[in-house]
Amino acid sequence: PAQHFDLVAEQEIVRAKEHLAAEIAPQLHELILRAEAAVEKVERRARAAKNRVQQASAKLEQQQPSSRSTTTTGPTFIPTAFRPTPALSAEATKSLPDVSEAQLNQLRAQVEAARRRKTMLDERAKQLESEADILAACQ
């Protein structure tokens, strides 16, 4: 097969580029605006998720006994099976409200559910932050 090359004047090439630029510019502008709005939305979601995680962490810290130490990186999740059970004195036991074993198990389940939710929120916040970083790098 023979190849054909058309010779085109440079002026025609310049006009064609200008025509394409004029035709594409509004669409590019619209896409840029949409991308910026999407980035802002992701950043807002990341901030909101991070705030929810911080609030959940603070709430969990308040619900946990004050004798438990926390690190500067936040509370550490220790599964119930590995936590030592604190010994209570007879006097301390008297001041505790009467709680049935079923109620106690229900409360433990709620605490575990809250911890799992916190872990999920931590992971989601990290994911959103990395997405926001990627989007910011694309700008």
Automatic annotation (TrEMBL):
It is found in: Chromosome, Centromere, Kinetochore; Cytoplasm, Cytoskeleton, Spindle; Nucleus. GO terms for cellular component: DASH complex; spindle microtubule. Keywords: Centromere, Chromosome, Coiled coil, Cytoplasm, Cytoskeleton, Kinetochore, Nucleus. Residues 62-80 have a biased composition (Low complexity). Residues 104-131 form a coiled coil. Residues 44-101 are annotated as: Disordered. InterPro entries: DASH_Spc19. It comes from the Eukaryota. Belongs to the DASH complex SPC19 family. This is DASH complex subunit SPC19. It comes from Tilletia laevis.
